[in-house]
Task: inverse folding
């Protein structure tokens, strides 16, 4: 299946509600309950950006799958600083390069902003595929944080300077 990546624009209506519901479903299926965020509240903030991956074609009625296959949610800070708050891909679509496509779109946008830019993130030390993906995009491990996600669940703080 072919897919498209688009920067989500804040708007109202059925399409917006359907997209938010799909993002909430993806969030619940990807992360433990203790790490799930309120997607609607997060995306209502002016300091949050989001790119989504959608199927490139309309799926015939009765054969619908998720309307959002993956997403990257970015928190924007002052001075050219960004944080990857969430990167998630529906389980069926993992390992097919979709996470990399989302990072590519975000980093391209980030470079277009000019000047020096910085992006950081926190990632569970047990999520080796995620760590490998971020390392592929030149994020470096800056600091190990014990119990970041709870007892015996550590994180890497990773950073990319452009």
Result:
């Amino acid at each position: 299946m072919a897919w498209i990546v688009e920067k989500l624009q804040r708007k109202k209506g059925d399409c917006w509600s359907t997209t938010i519901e799909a993002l909430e479903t993806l969030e619940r299926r990807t992360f433990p309950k203790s790490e799930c965020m309120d997607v609607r509240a997060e995306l209502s903030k002016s300091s949050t950006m989001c790119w989504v991956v959608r199927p490139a074609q309309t799926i015939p009625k009765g054969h619908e799958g998720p309307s959002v296959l993956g997403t990257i949610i970015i928190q924007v800070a002052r001075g050219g600083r960004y944080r990857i708050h969430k990167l998630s891909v529906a389980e069926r679509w993992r390992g097919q390069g979709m996470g990399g496509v989302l990072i590519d779109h975000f980093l391209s946008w980030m470079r277009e902003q000019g000047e020096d830019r910085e992006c950081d993130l926190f990632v569970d030390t047990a999520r080796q595929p995620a760590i490998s993906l971020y390392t592929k995009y030149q994020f470096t491990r800056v600091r190990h944080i014990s119990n970041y996600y709870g007892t015996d669940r550590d994180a890497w703080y990773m950073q990319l300077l452009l």
